[in-house]
Design a protein that fits this description.
about 250 residues, alpha/beta, about 10% strand, globular
Length: about 250
């Protein structure tokens, strides 16, 4: 585990030394691969990093962690923690049976589903979480950074299939969410730092992002690497989609 060598602001002013970067566009324990255009763009960034002097090596899914443990822990943590809504409601004088009046449809389903889990599920989740964190830690002993997609999907429809306003069964919604967000969720479980970097626009003119994981306490290295990418491809960082808020 490394420690920041100084100011983050100063760090981004100079390129990083030659780094060992692991590349993955795998399924990460999910059923389907990422969108082909996403995977292609991540591989293009890998080639860019190689041209900047870094060593990039593709890594197999099974060498990263126990994915069954990660997803089991994540779903218990994601849904089980929503039991707190009952306590929050009680503190505000709201009866639990009236929570549906205050919560959106999918958030309310999270609250109802939290009853599935007891303290033993939480303890098992903590064991799985610790296991996965150690496995990612071992992976980061070999690599300085991991290069992966930010999302497994291209930009979704606003208020579409990933919206909390959806009115459908929770399990179907959660599976869809985990599929799409598979590359960011391990950071939540392990505490590893990550940074999302723009990598241009897709065929529809919408943004594509790539993500870099760093070792514990190496936010400075991630900022330095992201700044190097920005200097090499400034057009990615200034790209404006055809439809935008301005």
């Amino acid at each position: 585990m490394g420690e920041p060598s100084g100011s983050y602001f100063t760090a981004i002013e100079r390129d990083p030394e030659q780094l060992r970067i692991g590349l993955s566009t795998g399924v990460w324990g999910r059923a389907n691969p990422p969108d082909p255009e996403i995977a292609e763009r991540v591989c293009a960034v890998a080639k860019l990093l190689e041209s900047l002097g870094h060593h990039v090596e593709e890594i197999a899914d099974q060498s990263i962690c126990n994915w069954q443990a990660l997803w089991s822990a994540y779903c218990v943590n994601w849904v089980g923690s929503r039991a707190q809504f009952a306590t929050m409601a009680k503190d505000r004088g709201v009866a639990p049976e009236r929570l549906h009046e205050y919560l959106g449809p999918m958030v309310h389903r999270h609250y109802l589903a939290a009853e599935r889990y007891d303290k033993f599920d939480i303890w098992k989740m903590m064991v799985c979480n610790n296991t996965v964190t150690r496995e990612f830690g071992r992976r980061m002993e070999r690599f300085d950074a991991l290069l992966v997609p930010t999302m497994a999907i291209r930009v979704p429809q606003a208020n579409g299939p990933y919206s909390l306003l959806r009115d459908e069964e929770l399990d179907c919604w959660l599976e869809r969410l985990c599929d799409a967000c598979r590359y960011t969720m391990p950071a939540n479980e392990t505490g590893l730092p990550g940074i999302s970097v723009p990598a241009g626009l897709d065929v529809d003119g919408l943004p594509i992002g790539i993500q870099l994981y760093g070792n514990f306490c190496r936010e400075d290295l991630l900022l330095k690497l992201a700044a190097q990418i920005e200097r090499a491809r400034p057009e990615w960082f200034g790209a404006v989609p055809p439809v935008h808020v301005s």
